[in-house]
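Hi R.,

Here's the chain you asked about this morning:
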Amino acid sequence: MTARRAGPIGVRVLLGALTLLGSYWLASRWAPRAAPRWSDADFVRLRSAWPGPRAGELWVLPVNPSCPHCTSSLAAFRRRSAGQEANRLVVLIVDAPRRPEASAVERLGSGVEVWWDARSIWRDRWGYRVYGEPIRFDASGAYRGALGLAPARGRGGAS
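And the predicted structure, written out as tokens:
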């Protein structure tokens, strides 16, 4: 094959790959999603730190323990939310196909409740993609919205 023919073929392959990637991205964004709702039965509790039911909101912070951005977002969020003990903070380990090891849970810090999203509900059912962005639920588990406190740099995780 000559260099003259290789150039146009390479461009076509590249355009085809970009088209496929773009189609996948659009399909994943337009896929119907369930309204987020917190149910303890949907997730696996790895560590309990909450003594019992509270009347305040449930704040769920999705993290991947192997992601430095996630762990720094968790630390920053814990500093910002100090003094708001009426709200229950749950760290939800996401995008982890296998049960996280105890050492990974320990690296998230003490005094925080940790759950694992074993069935990828956060990403696949709810359609979330932003690590470290707290999601609010009322005491009954009904969705109240995202707090939007994640830093602008490094948002998004793997999509």
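The first strand starts at residue 44 and ends at 47.

Let me know if you need anything else.
M.
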